[in-house]
Amino acid sequence: MIIPTMKSSTPVYISGYGGYVPKLRLPTSDIAKLWKGSGSGPNEAKSVANIDEDTTTMAVESARNALSMSGLCDIGAIFVGTESKPYAVKPTSTIVAQALGVHKTLAADFEFACKAGTEAMQVITGLVGSGMISSGIALGVDTAQGRPGDNLEYTAGSAAAAFVLTNNSKRSIAKIEASTSYVTDTSDFWRRQTESFPRHLSRFTGEPAYFHHVESSVKQLLSEINLKPSDFKYAVFHQPNPKFPIQVAKRLGFTTEQIQPGLLNPIIGNPYSASSPLGLVSTFDVAKPGDRILLASFGSGAGSDSFSLLVEDGIMDKGPNYIPLTDIINDNKEIDYATYTKLRGILK
Amino acid sequence: MSVSYWRLRDRYYRIIGSICDSCTYESFPKFNTCPKCKSHDISDKEMPNTGKIISYTLSYESMPGFEHELPMSIGLIKLDNGVNIVSQLVDSEVEDIKINATVKAVFRKINADGNSGQIYYGYKFKVINA
To answer: What is the CATH number of domain A13-172+325-343?
Structure first.
């Protein structure tokens, strides 16, 4: 089996990044109290978008942070990866563009379950690397859905992450060394048109879906660029629950210490398309020049994108307005299940 | 979305006001004639996204379409350039909403035309330093 590793013909850099996590947290013990009587979910709590927040508002917040850090204004593409578009037909990306004051740009919404954000990063890497555009913004963002009482309800969270990719090396936070993508037709999780909540095949989501695809894309990446897990300071894996990223890291030869800075599921749950991108934001917050970071997403249906990123000097100057993700996450307020159903319009 | 809201979307999305090219007087919302020097040489100007609360109220009476957001905090804010603006205050505890508290603009949903109509987005503010 050959999976081509993608390398741009000219270097592509990340010059700005931004994360956004809504303020509200629903403890999973509150979900368990209603549906099971006691206990809790695999994660402590999940982030919940407020009544006036959706994928578009969170995308704008994270994109503004990323753009501010990069200092760039020549944006040639805005791609929003999400599976929770407020409009089934009408792009989120054009609203983001209008809010950023950017108009001479490509704009599109991408969908691939939880990996749409990294897919947007790969496409912009190609556009920048080929010289068609000089810079672009890739976003992963979701107000994740989980049917009331379903296992997904414990983890489905809300968040956004944005990255400015550019050919300008002056403010480079990280260089994109290479990436791979691996896909198969695997029905582990889906949502049909007009349905409000996704369905899944329970334990089928593990071995044939998450582990097979993540391991395939990461192994191919490491093989093609001739690196081993110990060459990376950090690794970020998609986080459908707290357990899977730890297990897949161990299987691939990474340590728990390598994934710790980006492991956010225990405190905010799984914000789907924003899951691994937000883990990268959290990892960038602690990274130093010279650190190499592995990023591996997973999207049901199914596929995985893996990246090798080399952190550069720009990481030391995040700009005067930057707020670390930890501060954003720590500024939170607990809500109960009844409030959650009201805010998210779940009771119909 | 109403046509009038669509025409003014930069006002709501980016807090675009005006600056007088003759005397540099700034204002929000936009003006066509400078209220200070009467000049018609006016340009668009993005207002600063931070300021301080100079007055506020907590409303328990809903406007139509905002029933789910009660109680609603509304602030009169002096932006960093001295321009005053009225805005809903969100993600802020009632005890933190006080005069001189520092606030920052956030991008939020304002309202929607029911479940099938268009969604109105715009600015609100949140307290970042009480």
So the answer is: 3.40.47.10
Q: CATH 3.40.47.10 residue ranges in chain A?
A: 13-172+325-343, 174-316
Residues A236, A246: Cα–Cα separation, whole Å: 10
* The CATH number, out of the four listed (3.40.50, 3.30.1120, 2.40.50, 3.30.450), of the domain defined by the range B48-130: 2.40.50
What's this model's pTM, rounded to 2 decimal places? 0.96
For the range B23-31, what are the long-range contacts, defined as Cβ-Cβ under 8 Å and sequence gap of 24 or more?
Answer: B26/B81, B26/B82, B26/B83, B27/B83, B28/B79, B28/B83, B28/B84, B28/B85
DSSP assignment letter at A83: S
Mutate to test the interface with B, among A52, A61, A327 (most CBs of B within 10 A): A52
Whether residue A173 contacts residue A14, with contact meaning beta carbons closer than 8 Å, is answered with yes
Whole-angstrom Cα distance, residue A100 to residue A123? 21
User: With an 8 Å Cβ cutoff, are B107 and A60 in contact?
Assistant: yes
Percent of chain B with pLDDT over 70: 99
Q: How far is B121 from chain A (nearest CA, A)?
A: 8
Q: Is A98 on the interface with B (CB under 8 A)?
A: yes
Q: Do B69 and A51 touch (CB under 8 A)?
A: yes
- CATH superfamily, region A174-316: Thiolase/Chalcone synthase (3.40.47.10)
A200-244 pLDDT, tens digit each: 887 678 999 999 999 999 999 999 999 999 999 999 999 999 999
Do residues A91 and A121 lie in contact, with contact meaning Cβ atoms separated by under 8 Å? no
